[in-house]
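From the methods appendix. Each design record in this collection lists the tokenized structure first, followed by the designed amino acid sequence. Records were kept in a plain field format so they could be parsed without special tools. The example shown here is representative of the layout used throughout.

RECORD:
FOLD TOKENS (288 positions):
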């Protein structure tokens, strides 16, 4: 008989590319994974409806985060920071989920910011204000920003842009020096603590990529032989940049259990700092 674990918010079950199967959600709960992350555009814009239909009774056991910013159009997905559309998307998310989400992220605002020069600062401020209003009206518990490339966001953040409760950025050994530096600077600009920052894509897309055969992430651990390479890569991701939680996708409860087990590993901070310095030096050499 499997022993049910207590809740551990450091692991967030991400539903990107997931089949949204009920067994995955029940398996997550058994492992103590009680945070669930999805988006309006996941599963071909059907994620919320499918979750409500297949696991509506389980959703109250999770803290649920979702994302708004992509909209379904006849010729494909369209990104928008229009505040009216964003506010309506939060309303629709709550309706389709059958409950208000605990967190709503502004999804990849850089997709629109790159096209909005010279008015991108006003655009971001208006978008964040719309989510702030949605929170004030009780449509969500909190709001945040999820950014795949935080550099364009960092370039326009000032006091006119409302501060999010949480920032989600890429994390892990495959994050480049430029993206890592931008994430660190954005965290500082918004004065966010470690617990206010989430990581995503800790394996750069796949645990079966050849890079994990060539790179042994256990070099970053104090007890380097207790965990597998995949487990070690996941554990180190909490330090690149420093995050309190990581959203990770899988359709297999067994794999999720391995990642939860990785949290017992101890990261050697000095090795992480040496790696960061190598990244910075290499980045400077390439830009010279």
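DESIGN:
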């Amino acid at each position: 008989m499997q022993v049910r674990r207590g809740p551990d918010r450091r692991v967030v079950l991400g539903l990107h590319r997931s089949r949204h199967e009920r067994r995955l959600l029940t398996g997550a709960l058994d492992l103590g994974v009680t945070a669930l992350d999805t988006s309006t555009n996941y599963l071909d814009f059907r994620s919320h409806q499918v979750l409500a239909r297949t696991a509506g009774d389980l959703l109250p056991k999770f803290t649920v985060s979702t994302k708004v910013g992509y909209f379904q159009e006849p010729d494909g997905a369209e990104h928008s920071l229009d505040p009216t559309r964003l506010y309506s998307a939060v309303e629709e998310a709550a309706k389709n989920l059958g409950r208000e989400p605990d967190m709503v992220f502004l999804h990849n605002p850089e997709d629109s910011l790159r096209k909005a020069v010279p008015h991108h600062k006003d655009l971001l401020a208006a978008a964040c204000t719309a989510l702030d209003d949605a929170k004030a009206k009780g449509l969500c518990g909190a709001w945040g920003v999820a950014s795949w490339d935080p550099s364009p966001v960092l370039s326009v953040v000032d006091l006119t842009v409302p501060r999010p409760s949480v920032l989600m950025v890429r994390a892990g050994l495959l994050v480049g020096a430029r993206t890592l530096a931008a994430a660190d600077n954005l965290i500082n600009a918004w004065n966010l603590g470690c617990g206010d920052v989430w990581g995503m894509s800790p394996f750069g897309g796949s645990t079966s990529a050849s890079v994990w055969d060539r790179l042994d992430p256990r070099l970053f651990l104090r007890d380097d032989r207790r965990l597998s390479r995949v487990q070690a890569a996941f554990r180190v991701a909490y330090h690149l940049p420093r995050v309190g939680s990581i959203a990770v996708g899988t359709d297999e409860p067994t794999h999720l259990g391995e990642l939860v087990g990785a949290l017992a590993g101890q990261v050697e901070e000095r090795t992480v700092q040496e790696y960061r310095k190598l990244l910075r030096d290499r980045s400077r050499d390439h830009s010279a």
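APPENDIX NOTE: The longest strand covers residues 63-68.
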